[in-house]
Design goal:
By secondary structure, the chain is an alpha+beta fold. It is 52% helix and 18% strand. Helix 3 packs across helix 4, helix 4 packs antiparallel against helix 5 and helix 5 packs across helix 6. Keywords: Lipid-binding.
Length: 599
Amino acid sequence: MNDTTNQSINGKFLYYGFIAGSLQILQSQEELNQINVFPVRDKDTGTNLASTIRAVIDNIHPDKSYKKTIENIAEAALIGARGNSGIIFAQFLHGLSRETKNKQVITLQEFAESVKNSIPYMYEAISNPIEGTMLTVIREWSNFLSSKEDVAHDFKKVIVDSFSVLEKSLAETTKKLKALNKYGFVDAGAKGFVIFIQGVIGFITNRNIRDFAVERMETISLIHSEDIIDEELSFRYCTEAIIKEIRVSTGSLKQTLAKYGDSVVVAGSEHTCRIHVHTNHPATLFHKLKDAGTITFQKVDDMQRQQEIAGKRKWNIALVTDSTCDLSQDLIDFYQINVVPLNLNFGDKHYLDKITIQPEQFYDLLDSTPELPKTSQINERTFTNLYSHLASHYDAIISIHLTSHFSGTYANSVKAGERIQKEFKKPVHVIDSKNLSGALGLLVLKTAHYIEEGKVPEAIVKELNTDIDNARIFVSVKDLKYMIKGGRVSRPAGFIANFLGINPIISMNKEGKSLLFGKTFSQKGSLNKIFKHIEKITQGKSVWNYIVLHAHNLEGANKAEVKMFAITGKKPVSVVDISPVIGIHAGNGAISISLLLTN
């Protein structure tokens, strides 16, 4: 529909109207972030809404059919939805798509009716719907559209007039919610919707499609708030996922999520839905949900770390690593280390290493699955998003990763670092540790100490080159079946080794490649061989620190700790369960010693 006095809307008009509203949100991110205080004062509503609509902009194209266009918009929004407001907005669009007749062109009366019928979809998606939010504003806007009998005759006038209803409803959100009244703000998600409709109205009244098509090509990046957020969190992790082939009701899903946290939203259809919840235990939650359907996507934001980045930074250098770094959570939290998870897939079920799957859940699944799970590297976009956020707050970034011979994670981190360094004019140092697990953990910990001591980034990187040469890791494998499953050991060789009772010792060479250090006829024998070698290599050198690691074998780790104390005279910095990504190949029962030597 090019002439807004016409009584129908086609797909292209809907598409460009949506783009117009989306651009308004992209341009208003900072404003929305600043007023975001409900349900959590994390100042990211603008960024989350922008991320949601960018998923639509980047993935769909104009189509003549209204029905096809609204379906494409709704699907892209659901997949790309982020945050509470983003998912509610996506659910509103999902309701529109479901309540639109299968037609190329719809009348304006049919449009108003589909808006009205989409309202229950939003309310049903939320475990605890609260008035004074985006819900209220969209509902009251819908009521206005439905009340206008002349909507079929003068769509432009009705939509323009509806804006005063939106403004009034938005203003009243301050009175309806105590959290908003405390700061004198309106609801950020509700304002996002009002801004969106403002953009749509601007397109209807002032623009033609040709000019608008050129304007929308401008790149507008996601914006991260730099304000201090000082609020105690009830739940640490903002957790989201897409579940397909759902085998339980959405009501049951909401009940399960509510047991683990708050801010529960379940959006989408009975076949595919997107969930949102604030929780302290994402891994336990997803283990509970593993039989509810196929989890194809997960995203977890650490709101505690986001608070620290925004306003509680201990130092001016950001430290980043990946989830193959094995350190205790206490150390990670104390040094404010940003840990980016690798991806782990059991068949078509997706997990985030150490975030949505912890060792206790991992080994249960590992023993009950005929084939080994697959891992995948961290992509460049993930690093780009993190580094842009960190560069907005820190003077420099140091990022240390598992050996480049095992994963493309390091290469992707380098590409992202180069881009952000150029854009922000701040140094981003990406380091190949040529190691993994506990050895990587020690290198990250040593870097944290350098930062704590006040060393400049260039000096730290120089020191790290020496530290990398002095890092060691030895892994005593208890059961070869996992290495055979993963193809690290051939089945014939594995059969012979198992028959003979051989237990291999795995280490790393100077280039960061795996090395068969030795083999014995029992795990006890392989550990004794490791201890003897450690006694030899520590002669004339001191042990800066060491870590004892285990694959669901705490008893074995405790015995190794006693032996290492006798050798070094010091307690380990950590005794931790090996990362699931590493545990895939080490296998249940493995014991590992990592140490960092000094001259």
